[in-house]
Design goal:
Blueprint: H1 10-13, E1 24-31, E2 34-42, E3 60-62, H2 73-78, E4 80-85, E5 88-92, E6 99-105, E7 111-121, E8 127-136, E9 149-150, E10 152-153, H3 158-162, H4 169-172, E11 184-191, E12 199-201, E13 207-209
Parallel strand pairs: 2-8, 3-8
Antiparallel strand pairs: 1-2, 4-7, 5-6, 6-11, 7-8, 7-10, 8-9, 12-13
Length: 222
């Protein structure tokens, strides 16, 4: 991921491949004016939390309510990060016949998803770095399969998102929009089930497999 010009060995420390909520991913944050790669657990634990289990359901954060939700509003103001990737997945089809669908940029280049991060201190003194991915309404391509998509930041807007001096939510809202459909592609992989991970129940007693995207609104954005 040389294109992100980040210091630190986090990229080299983690093997390439797909990642799930609860696993460690690489994020890039501004540390004293330098882009620094950090290993962070995917699933944000707010600093005020008493139980780290809250991170299991805070792997996505809705762009529309970042400045309102207690779990995200402080990180939105001062602890923003980039989460590099070269694609993300959704699954479609009937149970037992799921098809993996991959979204990426038409150019094939890696991109940065908008993220937030926190450092949580346990009563034992242990510290855990965690992050969440910001989502927004889907563009026309993503809307074929899902009603949310991650916020993909244009390369020339990454510095603004990372800038710790920018604390006004209104200055950042123009970034929290769907990425241009024309610059993205959709690919269908070989049929296989969604990756193993924590499943949860909604109020309708449907089982929702955790993925990049938001589950129903009553189960996210605490």
């Amino acid at each position: 991921m040389a294109r992100f010009a980040a210091e630190g060995g986090a990229f080299e420390a983690l093997p390439p491949g797909d990642f799930l909520p609860g696993q460690v991913v690489v994020a890039i944050a501004d540390k004293e004016g330098r882009r620094t790669a950090l290993p962070l657990r995917w699933g944000l634990i707010p600093g005020w939390a008493t139980d780290p289990a809250i991170g299991r359901k805070l792997f996505n954060a809705r762009a529309e309510t970042l400045s309102e939700k207690p779990s995200f509003k402080e990180a939105f103001r001062s602890r923003r990060c980039l989460i590099p990737a070269d694609g993300f997945y959704e699954w479609t089809g009937e149970k037992g016949k799921k098809q993996a669908v991959r979204f990426g940029l038409r150019s094939g280049e890696p991109f940065a998803m908008a993220g937030l991060y926190e450092t949580w201190r346990a009563p034992s003194g242990e510290t855990i770095g965690t992050c969440t991915i910001v989502t927004t309404e889907p563009n026309d391509l993503i809307a074929l399969l899902h009603d949310r998509m991650p916020v993909l930041l244009p390369k020339d807007k990454e510095a603004l998102w990372l800038d710790p001096k920018v604390r006004d939510p209104e200055a950042l809202r123009p970034l929290l929009v769907p990425y241009r459909s024309a610059e993205m592609v959709i690919e269908t992989a070989a049929p296989h089930p969604p990756p193993a991970g924590p499943a949860r129940k909604t109020g309708r007693d449907e089982e929702i497999q955790t993925s990049l995207f938001d589950p129903p609104r009553d189960r996210t954005d605490e």
